[in-house]
Known about the structure:
Blueprint: H1 11-24, H2 28-56
Amino acid sequence: MKTTIALRLDPETRKKLDLLAEASGYSSATLVAEAVRRLVDFELAALAAAQAEQAKNSDNDAPPPINWKLTV
């Protein structure tokens, strides 16, 4: 099931997105959805790796929570 999400882009980024959409033949929405999918997959893999590393280096059975913050 797909859902809709609204986001705000600065004018420069929107212009670049529109140029990319035109050059690639994909819609802006498709490009944004793919970018979000890739970001989420990447960040979840990085988080899992960090948690695994903490668990490996920890004396406890359960890894402590990681303070995770996206920097953009």
